[in-house]
Write a structure and sequence with these properties.
The chain is an alpha+beta fold. 42% of the residues lie in helices and 24% in strands. The protein has three helices and six strands. The protein has a three-stranded antiparallel sheet with strand order 1-2-3, covered by helices on one side. A hairpin with a 4-residue loop joins strand 2 (77-81) and strand 3. Helix 1 runs antiparallel to helix 2. The relative contact order is 0.16.
């Protein structure tokens, strides 16, 4: 958008239904854990209640991190957020962003299917891991959303590469 700050990190696509549903189920589980913590605290064992509260906090953190997973862009570069690791690549190190046909993992599981993937070539010649696939939790059964996100990422790369 023209009024938005280009230096702010943003995801150029919406989280998919599989990712949102997984986070919603985890947040529902955390609500049950918090209710059980109240019941356990009223029964008199504060150590058990504390353990339930701690587990609920861990589940909430897990769900929120699951929602942050994806590709983020800004005028500074390209950021790939995985569950445990985040990697940022400045636009000066990006040689090309392109869509390729290749076997891709289905929902991140070991099973592979034929699909499309968005890959980034580094300026020094290496290739990053695949950024997006049309069979991940954001784009499964939504090929037009994958195409839109790939086009937006390619446009960001074209606009911000030196």
């Amino acid at each position: 958008m023209p009024h938005a700050d280009p230096g702010r990190w943003r995801r150029p696509y919406r989280p998919g239904p599989w990712r949102v549903a997984g986070a919603a189920v985890l947040l529902l589980l955390s609500a049950y854990l918090l209710i059980s913590a109240v019941v356990i605290a009223l029964a008199g064992t504060l150590a058990g209640a504390g353990a339930c509260v701690g587990l609920a906090a861990a589940v909430v953190a897990f769900a929120l991190r699951l929602l942050r997973v994806g590709i983020w862009v800004s005028s500074h570069g390209l950021r790939q957020v995985n569950f445990l690791r985040t990697m940022t690549l400045p636009w000066s190190q990006v040689a090309a962003v392109r869509t390729v046909q290749q076997p891709v993992r289905w929902l991140g599981l070991p099973r592979t299917v034929q699909g499309q993937a968005l890959e980034v070539r580094r300026a020094e010649g290496g290739t990053l891991r695949t950024l997006l696939t049309d069979h991940n939790a954001d784009f499964l059964a939504k090929p037009e959303a994958f195409d839109r996100a790939a086009d937006v990422l390619e446009a960001w790369a074209a606009d911000h590469r030196p």
